[in-house]
Amino acid sequence: MSTASPLIVALDYTSMDAALCLADRLDPARCRVKVGKELFTRGGPDVLEALHGRGFEVFLDLKFHDIPNTVAGAVQAAAEQGVWMVNVHASGGSRMMEAARERLDRHGFDTLLIAVTVLTSLGDEDLAEIGLPASTAAQVERLARLAHKSGMHGVVCSAQESARLTEICGSDFLKVTPGIRPAFAAAEDQRRVRTPGEAMAAGSSYLVIGRPVTQAEDPMVALAAIEKELAIL
Ligand SMILES: O=c1ccn([C@@H]2O[C@H](COP(=O)(O)O)[C@@H](O)[C@H]2O)c(=O)[nH]1
């Protein structure tokens, strides 16, 4: 089932049972779900099958980063499992991104292919630590331009960068933004954060929300509060 909602709930759980327990309370008409490294490493393709069986569109967030041939094969494998969206790291370079896109096109998949720019958990000082002299904003811009040129449907970035990326890559280029923190939630390990309302106002296409929902005393109350903030309830 497809939905007009921009919300993607990150099912970052330690077991498939726990993830499906929340999925059973969510409505695929009101959100999409994201399967990341922890859940997929524990549950594998069965998790995707179970979520698809419940009617959800799934973002498989494994952030592939390897040589072009390997990433193209991994992206194809994800598409064969019917995921709605899959991602790679833009820092894998244009040849890697182009190989992934070419593989999807060659096999006729319409899976959305997104490139991670700079993780939302990183700030300027973290980039300096790994030898990148650029600010996070400049590095995101650089990688987004490369991703756009390499045929990606959009990028993962923080909502702090959404408006600028719309200016330089156009409004059709997707901005998938984690680091979403409603007023009631703590930033925790995230560094570049925005509230749901700020993210939408900045032009984000999709908001990825994990712990503010999954770790809430009542996840459904937290989700409803976010929907209310966005006036989509
Ligand atoms: O730059 C990125 C890329 C991916 N993520 C993922 O999004 C969720 C965010 O979870 P929260 O609990 O809301 O912080 C998580 O699955 C990350 O792996 C990201 O945060 N930043």
TrEMBL record:
Domain Orotidine 5'-phosphate decarboxylase: 6-226
EC number(s) given by UniProt: 4.1.1.23
Listed pathway(s): Pyrimidine metabolism; UMP biosynthesis via de novo pathway; UMP from orotate: step 2/2
Catalytic activity, reaction form: orotidine 5'-phosphate + H(+) = UMP + CO2
InterPro entries xref list: Aldolase_TIM (IPR013785), OMPdecase (IPR014732), OMPdecase_AS (IPR018089), OMPdecase_bac (IPR047596), OMPdeCOase_dom (IPR001754), RibuloseP-bd_barrel (IPR011060)
Keywords (A to Z) from UniProt: Decarboxylase, Lyase, Pyrimidine biosynthesis
Domain of life: Bacteria
Binding site for substrate: 12, 34, 61-70, 120, 181, 190, 210-211
Active-site feature positions: K63 (proton donor)
NCBIfam families: PRK00230.1, pyrF
Role noted for this protein: Catalyzes the decarboxylation of orotidine 5'-monophosphate (OMP) to uridine 5'-monophosphate (UMP).
Subunit structure comment from the entry: Homodimer.
Family: Belongs to the OMP decarboxylase family. Type 1 subfamily.
PANTHER family: OROTIDINE 5'-PHOSPHATE DECARBOXYLASE
Protein name per the record: Orotidine 5'-phosphate decarboxylase
Organism, scientific name: Litchfieldella qijiaojingensis
